[in-house]
Design brief:
This protein has 461 residues and is an alpha/beta fold. It folds into 2 domains: 2-226, Spore Coat Polysaccharide Biosynthesis Protein SpsA, Chain A, CATH 3.90.550.10; 345-461, Hexapeptide repeat proteins (UDP N-Acetylglucosamine Acyltransferase, domain 1), CATH 2.160.10.10. It has 8 helices and 39 strands. It has a 16-stranded parallel sheet that branches. It has a 9-stranded parallel sheet with strand order 14-17-20-23-26-28-30-33-36, with no helix packed on it. Helix 5 packs across helix 6.
């Protein structure tokens, strides 16, 4: 089986936060879930996550819900530390015939394509251990890869670099692939006999070479995979890199993003070709947008949007929009709504837990809550679906081709039947039958000379 161990026990003190570092949001989902999803999407069968005493209660439920097995690492004075020790805690999950990848919960830019290429190289080389490396303009504090005749020789940490030697800028990413056999034969040999007094996973490489095992290094061209998160500034840089990567990927697949620096799209979102995105947009969750649709300056979460729609300055979540829908500007779709084909919704309209039938129009300034609205309905300016009595929500039903005039209040539970007509300014509490006109107003009364008698008459400004 293909298995992975994600190391995520670190305390994350540099984040200056009460929240676990690996649960901080990166492009709309927890940092560690970018790593988890990349591993899963690369075809790995089982993922084991090592969490620490300070973050296990918070992080374990998130990961277990996705199918990860959890291992606890005790942290604190007198406890063993180091990547090698953390990995060793998951040893019981690994068998000799398995292949194992080790990576980190705070390096979120590793993606499934790189993992697939890395795994392919490892298998083709028939390596026992393979190191994922990258070539950086500035190697900073990363360990250097040393090669002899082009083949991997060793990893030299920065503090151990010999000033009399020249090193390349190929660095160790800290991500490894092991055969199960190599892992199990070397992991118990490592110790903390070093300056940091930590159990280091890189020591497995030394022991593997002593045993005559093959160790290789695969160089990825995607240098972003090196970026890790230690503090909020790192989180910012990782997010900008991920935004750039995701938007480029979308554009190469046929999506036109006119303002990519202002557009944030989660990797989980599915967008078909010939979609156009303008302005400052946030699109995330399980959103799907079909071809020909135009999105302008909107926030979309868990939305299903059909073909050839125009969504402008809209906040929408957990709902479905059909084809050829025009929605906005400055409008909202709240959860559990269905906006069917050909609907036109204008500015300052809110729809919540409601269905709008084909061809229905709500041009401006309306609230449609807990309603089932039929086809071809006209909802005029200022209409309110009064759905809450102070204790309970109630539904309103409006039949096909009904007309709801301006400034109408529909007090639920109430029904307006097909072709019902509600006159402007009415408050409706009783059913309106088919083809009926409903008017609910007090009689207008005009009092002559009232303004003058009250001393309110003016001749000029």
């Amino acid at each position: 089986m293909k298995k992975a161990i994600i190391l995520a026990a670190g305390e994350g003190s540099r984040m200056k936060s009460s929240k676990s570092k690996v649960l901080h949001m990166l492009l709309f989902k927890p940092l560690i879930m970018h790593v988890f999803d990349s591993v899963k999407n690369a075809g790995f069968d089982e993922i084991i996550t090592v969490l620490g005493t300070k973050n296990i209660d918070e992080a374990a439920p998130v990961l277990e819900a996705k199918g990860s097995k959890i291992v606890k690492q005790e942290l604190g004075e007198g406890k063993p530390y180091g990547t090698g020790y953390a990995v060793k805690l998951a040893k019981d999950f690994i068998k000799e015939e398995d292949s194992l990848m080790v990576l980190y919960g705070d390096t979120p830019l590793i993606d499934s394509k790189v993992i697939e290429e890395f795994t392919k190289f490892h298998n083709e080389e028939k390596s026992d251990i393979t190191v994922l490396s990258a070539i950086l303009d500035d190697p900073k504090d990363y360990g250097r890869i040393v090669r002899e005749n082009g083949e991997f020789s060793a990893i030299v940490e920065k503090k151990e670099l010999n000033p009399n030697k020249t090193y390349t800028n190929e660095v160790n990413s800290g991500i490894y692939l092991f055969s199960g056999n190599a892992f199990l034969k070397t992991i118990d040999l490592i110790n903390d006999n070093n300056l940091k007094k930590e159990y280091m996973i890189t020591d497995t490489i030394k022991y593997a070479k002593e045993m005559g095992m093959k160790v290789s290094a695969y160089v990825t061209s995607d240098t972003d995979i090196i970026l890790g998160v230690n503090d909020r500034e790192d989180l910012y840089f990782c997010e900008r890199a991920l935004i750039k990567r995701e938007n480029r990927k979308r554009m190469l697949s046929g999506v036109m993003i006119h303002n990519p620096d202002l557009t944030m799209i989660s990797p989980d979102v599915k967008i078909e070709q010939d979609v156009e995105i303008f302005g400052e947009c946030k699109i995330y969750g399980e959103t799907v947008i079909e071809s020909g649709t135009v999105i302008e300056s909107s926030t979309l979460k868990n939305m299903k949007i059909g073909k050839d729609c125009h969504i402008i300055n809209t906040v929408a979540e957990d709902s479905v929009v059909g084809n050829n829908v025009s929605y906005g500007p400055f409008s909202r779709i709240r959860p559990n709504s269905v906006i069917k084909d050909g609907v036109k919704v204008g500015n300052f309209v809110e729809v919540k837990n409601s269905t709008l039938g084909e061809g229905t129009k709500a041009g401006h300034l309306a609230y449609i809550g807990d309603a089932d609205v039929g086809k071809g309905v006209n909802i005029s300016c200022g209409v309110i679906f009064c759905n809450y009595d102070g204790k309970h929500k109630h539904r309103t039903v409006v039949g096909d081709n009904a007309f709801i005039g301006s400034n109408v209040n529909l007090v639920a539970p109430v029904e307006v039947s097909n072709n019902g007509f509600v006159a402007a300014g009415s408050t409706i509490t009783k059913p309106v039958e088919e083809d009926e006109l409903a008017i609910e107003r007090s009689e207008q009364k005009n009092i002559k000379e009232w303004v003058k008698k009250k001393g309110l008459h003016k001749e000029d400004f």
